[in-house]
Amino acid sequence: MAYHPDQGVFRILDASLNRANEGIRTIEEFFRFSKDELVHAGALKDLRHRLQSAASGLDRRELLSARDTARD
Which of 11, 33, 37, 71 could bond 66 through an S-S bridge, CB–CB 3.0 to 4.6 Å? Predict the structure, then answer.
């Protein structure tokens, strides 16, 4: 695969978005399953969806092609 000058940026964004999404989901599940706090769980779910919406402007193909799971 040829190197793209922005590949490092896309790699960082892809990894960071995945971490943020998983972190928010973990906290959401804590509130839902451990605390039975549906209001907080709902707010966190909304936050996850807003993050995904904000990231929707990024080229998903660029993010995926920048992944290097063998070396990460």
Answer: 11
